[in-house]
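User: Thanks for the earlier help. One more: Coatomer subunit epsilon. Can you show the sequence and predicted structure together?

Assistant: Of course, both are below.
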Amino acid sequence: MATPDHLFSLRNNFYLGAYQAAINNSDVPNLSQEDSIERDSLVYRSYIALGSYQLVISEIDSSAPTPLQAVKLLAAYLSGPDQKESTISSLKEWLGDSAIGNNPVLRLIAGIIFMHEQDYNEALKHTNTGGTMELHALNVQIFLKMYRSDFAEKQLKIMQQIDEDHTLTQLANAWLNLAVGGSKIQEAYLIFQDFSEKYPMTGLILNGKAVCCMQMGHFDEAESLLLEALNKDAKDAETLANLIVCSLHLGKQSSRYLSQLKLSHPDHMLVKRTAADEESFDRALQTVA
């Protein structure tokens, strides 16, 4: 008989964006040392997802196991632009250490950080060999960022062979369907709909459904889903970014959402693109003034 997976619910909450639920329900009894480390990693990553970087940095000390040290690095990296250089330097040093460099959580964090840096080739150096479902799922994301849906599909097939019903396999399938577009959008929508029927509604699920609706031209439905997501987290970057796009298609004012995004996520791609477009427009005006 297979041993029971004590962390199934915790993992699922984390994967689907129910971060507070993951934290609140993390007191799981009778865990092995390995499971306890995984539990703590997921809890601290949930705090990171909620923006509580300093809590993670202060609670994980230098004697903690490698996976927790890696999670602390992620918190430091995300805590502010002045931390990025030193964090990446430490990360590269650890990755080069033969004793810990192949740790799957360290490789996962490396992939996440280098993906944030848009250094996708460097990210793949550490994630491409896989080893865990999270690493395979991250590979799918990286390949989609590189506009290589063919490689993303190969990763998805590996995940489907391991566990077709796994939450991360379903999510990766939805991401790929959204990237491919066309008739695949409806398939992606059905995956998010299935999640919404099985599990508590999260911002991640609502945004997934909303993006599908937008791609199918159903902007009114997308807007109502995004406003529901905004009620759950008024500062969520993806919700605000999607609301900006949705509002523009509906002919509605999007300036308030853009202002909120600029304040809470100044490094967001949409904020940077908007700033670049405004600069280009100002330069164009000066040439004809």
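User: Great, one quick takeaway?

Assistant: Residues 269-288 form the longest helix (20 residues).
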